[in-house]
């Protein structure tokens, strides 16, 4: 019976998608090469996996309109992470444990087990005692149609963890054992709880993998844990940690005790629109992450989700990044090489000296482009370098490299008449001879990477095609740029 209810809910949602998708496709703010759903709202990437020759992206999905609401798992597959084929919705709310009207099937992950594709997700219910979150399983023989396990839920919140703060299971296998890390809160402090299982269905608590003493907030959403060389990385999206919203920790892990010890931490992205990254492994062994390019209303800098809802959709994913360990033991997040396939008009210039006067730069059509250069710090004596992006009609986004105060800033206050705020990060220039800058611009986003991809800012801006100029200037002296490269980037959405 319950199988029929889920199918009925999936069919209803599919009909709505079919009814709206042609209209939504015409939306002026639609991204050209970033991952999006056909219609409606998306948030966290879920169940990212390379399975039977294709990348599968599942996603938190309200197919009905451009706001968060009753969550389904959308599903799309791709061979290159650029061009996507949308598959039927994988999970729809249908059971007592996942039918909360303002909830549904929350985030989770995927793994191959027993020749099948398994999804582990958080069911959200309201049984009269409030919002209850439990961990649940669904599986599929063909990787398209999923069935929920009749023994769901497989895990309930442990003693001391409020039932509404126990979510987002990320599963992996080590040896013959399955492991799962899940976000939780105890005494108002965030925890990542580690579980294990021999068969994917019966889970036992193993250890607290890491916890906040207050400095990292009261709840961690979407934790993820993976090896990087001989180290381990824990990523999480903390609630209540100020502007820190996508944190990673690097440390050592012992499978014998389930203990993780870390001394290094960093921010994956300092922009306003990078949240809930999830990792997966490419067939060639690269550890990749995809994240939701937006933010929540509880974040200190939140204004709103932008105007895309007027076009019947909201949300895209930041470009997929490869996680790499640097010689300093911090992590770099490098745009995947697959993106190079999108490059069109190429422009190269060996060197450019900029001063107070604005100099124009060329990059594709000025909307969908990639721009790369190095700042030659040895020959630069300016206090700061300013890059004006998506300029037109008196609007522009200003990216400042402030050498004097060691800061990078992205100012959206004049971007589009909609977005606001200045994202900031510290730059440690020290004895560095150069600073690399790499920018990906799309219709409604700007992703700026610097310092070997360790210092990154992703921000949404909602600018029309008339905002298509780029210029640069320096203040307090000259700045010397070297190895300037730019490309137009072609679209991927048919
Ligand atoms: C993170 C999150 C998750 C939850 C999902 C609900 O963005 O809040 O913790 O599972 O979104 O859509």
Gist of the model:
The protein is mainly β and 494 residues long. The chain has one helix spanning 2-25; strands at 40-51, 54-62, 72-78, 85-91, 104-113, 116-126, 131-140, 147-148, 166-174, 177-186, 189-197, 204-211, 219-228, 231-239, 247-254, 259-267, 275-281, 287-292, 313-314, 321-325, 331-335, 343-354, 359-361, 369-376, 384-392, 395-402, 407-411, 422-426, 434-442, 445-450, 455-460, 469-475, 479-489. It has one helix and 33 strands.
How do the strands of the widest beta sheet line up side by side?
Answer: 22-33-24-29-30-31
**What's the total helix number?**
1
| Nearest-integer average pLDDT | 97
CATH topology of the largest domain: Tachylectin-2, Chain A
What is the 3D form?
A: globular
The share of residues in extended strands comes to: over 45%
Helix content: under 10%
Small molecules bound: beta-D-fructofuranose
CATH architecture of the largest domain: 5 Propeller
Largest sheet: 6 strands, antiparallel
How would you classify the helix and strand content by structural class? mainly beta
Q: Separation of termini? A: 38 Å
